[in-house]
Amino acid sequence: MNDEKRQLFQQLNEYCKIQPTDVTTKRYDVYLNFLIDKPHFYFEFLELMRSANEEDEIFVHINNNGGYVDTTMQIINAMKECEAHITTCIEGACHSAASMILLSGDSVKVSVHGSMLCHYYSGIAYGKGSDIESQVLFDKNMYKGFYYKIYNKFLTKQEIKRMISGVDI
Length: 169
Description:
The chain is α/β, with parallel strands linked by helices. The chain has two domains: 115 residues, 2-enoyl-CoA Hydratase, Chain A, domain 1, CATH 3.90.226; 50 residues, no CATH class. Helices cover 41% and strands 23% of the residues. It contains six helices and six strands; from the N terminus they run αββαβαβαββαα. Strands 1, 2, 3, 4, 5 and 6 form a six-stranded mixed sheet that branches.
């Protein structure tokens, strides 16, 4: 990465800290330690995942209470496109949207004091009555499928069903 591009990434990299730890092995450490916010805060992380190759290793260190599910979806999509091996690591809290990122890695590490919280999405709908009804129906169908897909390797179908009904796990 040239100096000009590195400087631009550093300016955009407020919430997501990335450190190349060893240039010869192409290992990158990403720290998700702030609430997951708007997508523009993750430009460097998204760019890293989309430009990494199969020889690279990316470690995503998570100590995070969650945040925006739509930003989380973009991060997960980039993780799926990534050619590098991605190891996600719980290093404290791994709650809500952060748990979705954790479960989207190729491998997972859990520290002895790590904790994970899974729950169904929160949101709002506004507008005309018909707009609200349409939005709620769309969200119900879209998020339900997304949650089953993300959590099915970690939670049982019964646990996912309970989560969707409002139980925190």
